[in-house]
Amino acid sequence: MQEVHDFLKKCGAYYLATVEGDQPRVRAFGTIHLFEGKLYIQTGKVKDVSKQMATNPKVEICAFDGNEWVRVCATVVDDDRLEAKQSMLEAYPSLQGRYAADDGNCQVLYLKDATATFSSFTAPSRVVEF
After folding, report:
1. Is residue 108 situated within a structural domain?
2. Is residue 80 part of a domain?
3. Mean pLDDT of 13-31
4. DSSP string, 59-114
5. d(C-alpha 48, C-alpha 68), whole Å
6. Angle made by CA atoms 42, 47, 51, in degrees to the nearest 5
7. Residues sharing a CB contact under 8 Å with residue 9, sequence separation 6 or more, in sequence order
8. What is residue 17's DSSP assignment?
């Protein structure tokens, strides 16, 4: 899990895929955070991505650092605890102008049953599960 966190953090942006009905939806994300032994992402509850993950919590994340890429397949779990939200906001101070832990909109979700596949054009793929 630490390796996946560090890779996504190094990339800065990654792409999160969800499903809306029968249509895949992909968008850029930038938040990735370790808290209490779990890997978290953050969004706003008013956003379509939040509604899509509530309907179907299966997601995929993809990121590329210029040499290697990772694809993470997981199920997201909403964590509505103030401590989890506050930890994310402390890790990403730039979010504090748009979100507060108790604003009813800030949402943090952790990745469960995750399989991360690291790949490149020059080495065999390797898999990390957490």
Report:
1. yes
2. yes
3. 97
4. EEEEEE-SSEEEEEEEEEEEE--HHHHHHHHHH-GGGGGT--TTSS-EEEEEEEEE
5. 30
6. 90
7. 32
8. E
The dihedral sign for the CA sequence 97, 106, 8, 69? negative
- pTM, two decimals, is 0.96
As for how many domains the chain has, the answer is 1
**How much is the pLDDT for 64?**
98
Kindly state the helix (H) or strand (E) to which residue 127 belongs, with its residue range.
Answer: strand 126-129
Q: Is 49 domain-assigned?
A: yes
Helix (H), strand (E) at residue 29: strand 23-29
* Domain extent for 68: 2-123
Token pair for 30: 């930038």
CATH of the domain at 74: 2.30.110.10
**Would you say the C-alpha torsion 23, 119, 12, 72 has a positive or negative sign?**
positive
Residue 70 domain-assigned?
Answer: yes
